[in-house]
Every structure is written in structure tokens, then in C-alpha cells.
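User: What would this chain look like folded?
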Amino acid sequence: MPDRLHQKQPPQPPQAQQPPQTQAARSSLRSDAQDNRERILVAARALFAADGLNVSMREVARRAEVGPATLYRRFPTKQTLIDEAFAKERRTCLAIVDEGCADPDPWRGLCLVIEKVCEVNAHNHGFTEAFMSVFPCSPEFAATRAYALNAIAQLARRAKESGRLRPDFVLDDLLLVLVANRGMRALPEVDQVAASRRFAALMIQSFQAPDEKHPPLPPAPRLSAALLKNP
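Assistant: Here's the prediction, encoded as C-alpha cells.
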């Protein structure tokens, strides 16, 4: 019986060799991935700004002209997409608050914050919705909310001490302004910014310390307490 260990084995076919990926090919893949990411963000920003956060991920993918798999590969959850889409607006919001707090006249600084935040709201309904949303919690938005609301509360305290802000103003009154200002989305787009500016001016006048006694206001709803809870 022949020794099988010493039998000559038939030659094996060579393994198919994958051609090495060139630097140009790798760069092209990275470029395509970056293009897809930017298209998704552009689409998400436009949809969230116009229609708020109820826009579906499928609609974002359709607007960006990418497949759902590509969308979820770049942004695994809707919250991650919202966080990234509104990164610029979060920076803008914090810059507005810092600008108002830096004004040596606290009443003028508070007026600036109200005017500019209302205008941001008029341009982007989704950002205010995300800012005011408690669930689901986003660390990015939670940090922005906490910093902005605490800074505005300090600014309002200084404005009261200056005698320009009515003494019964509370932070929740400003949040009511933001909630009411979201109603501007019902107007034609061409009128939304102008309407928001007028609304902000009316609210600022109502916040100004009165020269004569007025009846006490009804209790303010506790809006800020929920927003300032730790995520």
C-alpha cells in the first residue's frame, strides 16, 4: 500500500490576488464618504429648519439622495444627526448669550439676547424645538441649555437691580417667548423674520419695569426646571 504521506500532491491553483488599493482610490472613497455626509447634513438642516424635528430619517435620506444604509452608517441615530446638524446654531446661541452678558448695561444686554434669539428661531424652527426638548436627552443640547439659561438668569438679575427689568420677571417668561415665537412658522416664509422682530419688540416692552403699579401677573409655568435637570 503506497505511503500517502509521500505521495505527490497535485498543485493547488493560485489564490486570486486582490490588486492593491491605490492612494487615489482610497482618497476617492474618503471623498465620496465626505460628500455623502455633507449632503445629509445640508438636507437635514433644511428639513429641520422648515418643518421641525418630526421629519423622518427616510425623508432626510430622500432629500440628500442617499440610501437609508448610507444615512445610518454616517449617523446611527436621529439624535446624532440632530446634534451635528445644529452644531452651528448651538455656537450661535452661546455667542449671543455671551454678547448680551458682556454688555455693561444689563437691560440692553437682555434686550439684545431676546431680539437675536427670536431671530434665530424665526430662521430655524427645528433648533428651538431641539433646545426646548427634554427627551431624548442630548449631552450637547443639555450643556448648551444649562449654560445659556444660567447666564441669562444672571443677566436678568442684574437688569432687575438696575431698575429697568420688571421685578416679577422670571426666566420662564423668556421661555414662553421662545415657545410663542415658534408660531411664526404658520406665516408665509417671507414674513417670518419681520414678524419675529416685532413680536420680540412687544415682549421687550412688556418686560420693562413699569412706571406705575400693575396688577400682579398670573403664576409662570415652571418651564426652566425641567430643562435644567441633569440628563
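The chain is about 65% helix and 0% strand. If you want, I can go into more detail on any region.
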